[in-house]
Structure formats: C-alpha cells, structure tokens
UniProtKB/TrEMBL annotation, chain A:
Pfam families: FMN_red (PF03358). PANTHER family: FMN REDUCTASE (NADPH). Coiled coil: none annotated. InterPro entries: Flavoprotein-like_sf, FMN_Rdtase-like_dom, NAD(P)H-dep_FMN_reductase. Residues 1-143 form the NADPH-dependent FMN reductase-like domain. This is FMN reductase. GO terms for molecular function: oxidoreductase activity. Keywords: Flavoprotein, FMN, Oxidoreductase.
UniProtKB/TrEMBL annotation, chain B:
CDD domains: Flavin_utilizing_monoxygenases. It comes from Salinibacillus xinjiangensis. Gene3D superfamilies: Luciferase-like domain. InterPro entries: Bact_Lucif_Oxidored, Luciferase-like_dom, Luciferase-like_sf. Keywords: Monooxygenase, Oxidoreductase. One of its GO terms (molecular function) is monooxygenase activity. GO terms for cellular component: cytosol. It holds the Pfam family Bac_luciferase. This is LLM class flavin-dependent oxidoreductase. Residues 13-311 form the Luciferase-like domain.
Length: 188, 352
C-alpha cells in the first residue's frame, strides 16, 4: 500500500509538525505501508495550466505523479482566510477530474481558531467528493494552543492522529478488497 | 450533403479510425516496432476498404505511445493503397499547424486518392504538442478559431486575401493544388459537450463528435444543441452532416468482447491519459443505451440503429485498435463488420 502524506502549505510549521507525526505513526504501525511525505513548502510546483498531469515537468510532475500513484492520501492543511490554502487548491487543479477514484483520502487540519472547524467539512470534503475520493469522514482538527515550538503538546492530538492513521489504512484495505471482489464478478 | 460527398439515400456510413497509438500489449508487456505499427495501420485500411467499409481515418498525437504524428504522410500511403474507402484525419490539430500547408497536403491526398480525402480539424485533447511545435497553450482557443476559419476560407476561395494574428497575411494567394472537386469536406471535431458542439453549429460546419463513454440520450442533447445553433445562425441543419466517433469492438459474445477489449483500453488510457477505464463503467458499455459500440454483432447492430434513430447522423466511426490490440483480432473485427454489421445497418438505414 502506498500512502502520500501531503502537507498543503508553504506557510508556517504547524501542519508540517502534525504531518511528521502522521508519517511516524504510519511507519511505526504499518511496516508494509510505503509512505511518501510531500511538503509543498519544499517543492516548486507551477500553477495548473490545464494540461494532463503526465505532461508537466520537474517538481510539478513529481508531486502529481506521486499523488496519482498512491492508494491513499492524508491531506494536511492549515486554514487561511477561512479557506484552504491556494497551494493545496492548486494540487487539485493540477489533477484530472476523477483523480481520487479508488483512493482513500483523509484530512488533518490545523487552525488558529475554533471558528475554522467546519471549513474542512464545507470546503474540502466537497472537492474530494467531486474528485471521487473515498473520504475518511472524521478528520483531525488541531488548534494553535496544541503546539509549542514545532512540537505537539497535547496528548489527545496524538490519539486522534493515531485513529486517523488507522482509519485511513483500514478503509484503504477494505475498499481494495471490495473492489477486487466486485471486479472479479465482472469476469472480463 | 452533396458538398460533403455524402449520399443519405445509401444509409448511414460506417468507418474506422485510429489515433495511431503505439502501446504495449497489456498481457505480455511487449510492443511491436513503430515500423510494424505503421505498416499494420496501412494494412488495416486496405482490409477495411476490401470489406466495403466507408471510411478510415488517422489522428495525430505528439507524445509518447503514439506513432502517427505525421498523420498526413500515413494517409497519403493509405490513399495509394486503397481504392474506394474515404480517408481523413481524426483529427488534424489545425491550431498548431499552418492551414496553408495542411490544405496543400490534404488536397494532394485528395488527388492521389481520386477524390476520397476529408479533413477533420480539432483543437487537441492532449496539449503536449503546443510546446513541441512552438505554440503557447494560452492561445488554445484563439489559435484554433483563427486557423480553422482560414482553412475553411482556403477551401472556398481559390484566390485568398487574409489577415490574422497567428500567421503572416495572405495577399492574392493561391493555395494549390486544388482538390478533385475544387473543394473538399472539412469537419469540425467536437468533444461530447453541447458547449463545444454549438461552436460548430454557429459556423455552419459539419460536426464530428467524439464520445468516450456515456449514454446515447446524453449525446443526443449535444447533437440537438449543434443543430439548434446552426439554425439560429441561418444554416439548414438538414444540409449539415453529423458524424459520431467512439470505441468499437465486436466478438462472438458481449462477454468475450469485454474480455478482449477492456485490458487494452484500460492500460492504454493509463499510459496516455494517466487514468484507466473502471470496470464498473465498462460493464455498462454493452447495454443498448450506451454509446460505446462494444458487444456481439447483433448487439452492435441494434445499438448503431438505435443511435441512428436518435441522432439522425450520417456517419459513425469506431475505434477498435486502441491499446495494442493484436492485428489478428482487428482482422476478425473487420470480417464481422463486413459480413454482418455493414449489411444490416445499410439495409435498415438506406432509402430505396
């Protein structure tokens, strides 16, 4: 199983800090899972110009092809101006319409205020659903007060991330089994 | 319809097209050489011609896994190798070519083939060729509109005066040679959406509508939108031919057809578009209401007749070679088309 942990912003450190723990939890618990962490702060990704994702070059090509090659994606995102960051939206824009078909996508959100809690529900989930993702319904929402100097300081956050990681892996395995059984029925 | 060399009294025309894809056999992972693929495409056109198939066309895609980038050169070989079959491009990306050169090429093919050539001009669904040929993809729409317009004018006017943004002006220019009848059929290639179709309607140009999957009922709206747009612009839709183009594969049973085609389309699409064709969707393709003409010969006959009844179109062309399908299976299909499908669809659609 291939899982991409996508840290969706170039700004700040909270999302990356939390995603580091996602990767750690995945590696420690699931030795057969191949994890790739993509922190958009470390890549020079161009804006979508409408071409097929196979036709991009450089970092854009690496990022889009790695995501398309994954069985599951854990999206980590901060909330800016009451929405997802442009860097993350650009990733969606770079990918094809049905990019997340047969993929499980889960979400981790960091935010400066509780007021942003429903933004993933109202803005991120509809995008993922449109792109045909199997969405892990519960997401992890982490507030500013749970971080201190690039460390998570609230044990409850670790528990919640552990559950998110487990749900992501379990659902990916389950959907794969359902799909295999269904496809075998078609007999072609 | 005469202007477009179509005689509706003879019934719906049936054709084949290839994108010239060059893809490994998904079962063995092995790929024939580009030379063999090109020879087989030419051979396929000959067999289609001998089977009485009306039309054969070749497309251009400038990227990995394709081999007919120089599609007009391939068509010229086909013109020489065949006798009666109409030959065309599917499609010529006019946006990234010089319409004068395109017209020279296809008028020449028309003369070599003794009046059998047509141009289907499109905007490209894969846009890698913009970089390769030195164009800016941001001009995608304008490049097409301007150059397609020039292509149409070259077809109508023997001496042309023209000014535009993307090409040097033409002053009292003669574009030679002229096709056999002085002009030749030129179609606008359209994706399946009404938004794309109305552009062909507004211009009063024949429409070639490509469809991947979906139902006949949905594509009927696209065709209706095209005819309505033509009517609004003062053209008579009854004078404008419509052609459809999509996946085709016939085998003894529908299950066998699915088995013999899905792995090829699925793997081929992964390589060329980055995503496969889900089995769930593909399983629906044998249904009568699906636009994909895949199934047993009888199922396909019923589907083509149903589509004809719904669309009132003049031509259907099928793509059966996508994804490295073996030449033996292509030959089998040509045989089924010639002996079963063609006689049936002609019988029911020809006016006697």
């Amino acid at each position: 199983m291939k899982i991409v942990a996508l840290s969706g912003s170039k700004v700040g450190s909270k999302t990356r800090t939390a995603m580091n723990y996602v990767v750690k939890a995945l590696n420690e618990k699931y030795s057969d899972v191949e994890v790739a962490l993509i922190d958009l702060a470390e890549y020079d990704v161009q804006f979508s110009d409408g071409r097929n994702y196979l036709e991009y070059e450089g970092d854009t090509k690496y990022v889009t092809q790695t995501i398309m090659g994954a069985d599951a994606i854990v999206i980590g995102t901060p909330i800016f101006q009451a929405s997802i960051p442009a860097t993350l939206k650009n990733i969606f824009d770079l990918l094809p319409v049905n990019a997340f078909r047969d993929k499980v996508v889960s979400m981790l959100v960091t935010a400066g205020t509780q007021k942003h809690y429903l933004i993933a529900e109202q803005q991120l989930k509809p995008i993922l659903a449109y792109m045909k993702a199997q969405i892990v319904q519960s997401y992890v929402f982490i507030e500013e007060m749970d971080f201190h100097r690039k460390e998570i300081t609230n044990d409850d956050v670790f528990f919640r991330i552990d559950r998110l990681v487990e749900d992501t892996v379990v659902l990916t395995e389950t959907y794969a089994k359902i799909r295999e059984a269904k496809e075998a029925e078609y007999d072609f | 319809m005469e202007k477009y060399r179509i005689d509706p009294s003879k019934g719906i025309e049936f054709g084949l097209y290839t994108l010239g894809d060059h893809i490994p056999d998904p079962h063995t992972g092995e790929r024939i050489s580009a030379q063999q693929r090109l020879q087989e495409i030419i051979e396929l056109s000959k067999l289609a011609d001998q089977a009485g198939i009306d039309f054969f066309s070749v497309g251009e895609s400038h990227q990995d896994y394709f081999t007919t980038q120089a599609h007009s050169v391939v068509l010229s070989a086909i013109a020489q190798a065949t006798e009666n079959i109409k030959i065309a491009s599917s499609s010529t990306i006019i946006s990234t070519s010089d319409p004068v050169r395109v017209y020279e090429d296809f008028a020449t093919i028309d003369l070599i083939s003794k009046g059998r050539a047509e141009i289907i001009a499109g905007r490209a669904s894969r846009i890698g060729l913009f970089d390769l040929l030195g164009y800016d993809v941001r001009d995608y729409e304008e490049l097409f509109e301007e150059k397609f317009d020039l292509l149409l004018r070259i077809n109508e006017e023997e001496v042309i005066n023209w000014n535009g943004e993307f090409r040097a002006p033409l002053k009292n220019a003669k574009v030679l040679p002229r096709p056999k009848d002085g002009s030749m059929p030129i179609w606008r290639a359209v994706g399946g959406t009404p938004a794309s179709a109305i552009k062909a309607g507004y211009a009063g140009v024949p429409m070639f509508m490509a469809h991947l999957g979906g139902t006949t009922s949905v594509f009927k709206r696209t065709i209706e939108a095209y005819r309505e747009a033509a009517r609004q612009s003062g053209y008579d839709p009854a004078e404008l031919p419509v052609s459809t183009a999509g996946f085709f594969y016939a085998a003894e049973t529908s299950q066998q057809a699915l088995r013999e085609t899905h792995p090829f389309i699925n793997e081929g699409m992964k390589l060329t578009n980055g995503q496969g064709f889900p089995k769930q969707l593909f399983a629906q393709s044998v249904d009568k209401s699906s636009i994909m003409n895949i199934g047993s010969p009888q199922q396909i006959i019923e589907k083509i007749l149903y589509q004809h009844e719904q669309f009132g179109h003049q031509r259907y062309i099928g793509q059966m070679d996508f994804g490295g399908v073996s030449f033996d299976n292509l030959k089998k299909n040509i045989d089924i088309i010639g002996t079963e499908i063609l006689p049936a669809i002609k019988k029911y659609t020809a006016k006697n």
